[in-house]
Amino acid sequence: MNRKILLSTFLLFCSAGAAFAQQKGTSDISVTVGAATSTDLANLFTNIIAESFTGGAYSTKNFKAGPTFGLTYRYAIANRWMVQADGFYQKMSEDLYVNNEKNGDLKYSYITVGLGTDYRYISKEYFQMYSGAAVAYTSESIEYAGQGEAPKGDGFFNYQVTAAGFRVGKKLAGFAELGFGYKGIANVGVSYQF
User: Looking at residue 82, what is its pLDDT?
Assistant: First the structure.
């Protein structure tokens, strides 16, 4: 008798969890802010290479990277499996030195547009846990105040790998993601599903 009650209770909980799973056709719009992005890393790496190739004649100091702000739209193409399109904006600044003398100020603006996917391996009514990946293109614009010719902005391919994402709430929810890429090592935000 006890086994039947235990089995019935277990099946009830399993079916309740399945009923709240991310359903095909669900949309999700989110706003997010992140820090420590792959764009930060690309900028630092470019500076190291430039300083190495010029023998230290060209260098930068006082590098500051602001947070990245984004807007993401997701759509469930199957239960628990979502595809996404997003856009992110980030600003950075640094001082340019030539032969150890300050030559000017650089201000960077980055706009990133990406496409990706994620899978909700836990998808309950009030809690979702997921992982995902995205590819993107980042365009760079540069403002320069100083001597000499202003550097030209560039663009590059970018990515995001989300190792673990957590969404807590029903239709309107908060979320946090850990990973690496154009959204940052960590990003948090608000999400609305409909």
Answer: 97
Distance (Å, whole) CA 130 – CA 47: 35
Least confident of 45-54, 70-79, 83-92, 166-175: 45-54
Rounded CA gap, 164 and 18, in Å? 21
- Taking only the tens place, the pLDDT of each residue in 99-132 is 999 999 999 999 999 999 999 999 998 999 999 9
Are residues 182 and 114 in contact, defined by beta-carbon separation less than 8 angstroms? yes
Where is 10: in which H helix or E strand? Answer: helix 2-19
Percent helix, strand, coil in the chain (nearest 5)?
A: 20, 65, 20
Residues 6+ apart with CB under 8 A from 148: 98, 103, 104
**pTM here?**
0.85
Query: Which H helix or E strand runs over 187?
Result: strand 186-193
Q: Collapsing DSSP states into helix, strand and coil, what is residue 19?
A: helix
Pair of tokens at residue 161: 């790998």
Do the Cβ atoms of 175 and 19 come closer than 8 Å? no
- Grade residue 18 by pLDDT with cuts at 50, 70 and 90: very low
Give the C-alpha separation, 65 to 133, whole Å: 23
The amino acid occupying position 21 is: A
**Where do runs of H (alpha helix) occur along 54-125?**
none
